[in-house]
Design a protein that fits this description.
Strand content: 25-35%
Helix content: 25-40%
CATH superfamily of the largest domain: D-amino Acid Aminotransferase, subunit A, domain 2
Bound molecules: N-(5'-phosphopyridoxyl)-D-alanine
Number of helices: 8
Number of domains: 2
Radius of gyration: 19 Å
CATH topology of the largest domain: D-amino Acid Aminotransferase, Chain A, domain 2
Distance between the termini: 23 Å
Number of strands: 15
Length: 288
């Protein structure tokens, strides 16, 4: 596999960065995960815009232009002969002596890793997955805003450890006030009496690109939706629950903690997933 590192494609076994990189020393950097279908990276512009937003929020100057990043993504996919891919764009603060001053690192490290996409088991979409609402709380917005898609992932990793110990596929965190925030790498939605609900951005979440696509679809299909503040009891009593992310699209949830939601994909979840996949197809046609 070839990796795009700074301005070159290098073989995977030569894709190294320094131990003095502040991405390694401090988790100082930002990233994006994308999914490509039939050689087209879905919502590439939106992901790159969010990458720039995250970089700006940590005072990191991106050395490439929007178009330059787009070209680098396709160059990496092409070098690996990939049509269906899981792509990660990573920018760290770069190499510098130990110390927190960002001026110690004059040049960010830029990398793109593109793996062939591995499909999730079909069962996950038919029967749903188990999630746990964990004790680890989502980072406080005023401390480390979840809108920054940062390399500093310990909050999510701690939640993941707890979720895994409880046998859950995904761990969902509450915010510091006890409102449902998001999964470790996903947003959460639920349906009650045919209304779609999802935590509002000001609860302290990453505003997922998939989340925006789902809300667009809901508008187009006339599905009523509300974003807001919801407690865990709201999720327990839902008719349908699902999680969303770039790689998973819309994945139904069968159990939340020990509460059974349903062991078959719900009606609205199914409608949204079908519409989502149609949107992907339309996008591919338009961007081929
Ligand atoms: N995760 N919330 C968090 C904390 C995330 O890390 C992600 C994405 C999402 C969903 O965002 P989007 O719909 O834009 O993918 C929500 C990606 C998939 C990852 O970490 O690999």
């Amino acid at each position: 596999m070839m990796v795009y590192l700074n301005n070159k494609l290098v073989p995977q076994n030569k894709a190294f960065i320094s131990v003095f990189d502040h991405g390694f020393l401090y988790g100082d950097g930002v990233y994006e995960t994308l999914r490509a279908y039939s050689g087209v990276a879905f919502k590439l512009d939106e992901h790159i815009e969010r990458l720039f937003r995250s970089a700006e929020m940590i005072g990191l100057k991106v050395s490439k232009s929007h178009e330059g990043i787009k070209r680098a993504v396709y160059k990496t996919m092409k070098a690996n002969n990939q049509k269906s891919a899981f792509i990660r764009i990573n920018i760290s603060r770069g190499i510098g002596p130990i110390g927190l001053d960002t001026e110690l690192c004059p040049k960010p490290t830029f990398a793109i890793i593109s793996n062939t996409f591995k499909e999730y088991p079909g069962e996950f979409y038919k029967m749903g997955v188990k999630i746990a609402i964990v004790n680890v709380r989502r980072n406080l917005r005023d401390a480390l805003n979840p809108m920054i898609k940062s390399l500093n992932f310990l909050n999510n990793i701690l939640a993941n450890i707890e979720g895994k110990n409880r046998g859950a596929y995904e761990a969902v965190m509450l915010n510091y006030k006890g409102y449902v925030a998001e999964g470790t790498t996903s947003n959460i939605f639920f349906v009650k009496n045919s209304i779609l609900y999802t935590p509002a951005i000001d609860v302290g979440i990453l505003d997922g690109i998939t989340r925006y696509v789902i809300l667009d679809i809901a508008r187009e299909l006339g599905i009523k939706y509300k974003d807001g503040r919801f407690t865990r009891e709201g999720i327990y009593s839902a008719d349908e629950v699902f999680i969303s992310s770039t790689t998973r699209e819309i994945m139904p949830v069968s159990h939340v903690d020990n509460v059974k939601i349903g062991t078959k994909i719900g009606r609205i979840t199914k409608t949204l997933l079908t519409a989502y996949r149609k949107k992907v197809e339309e996008y591919i046609e338009e961007h081929r």
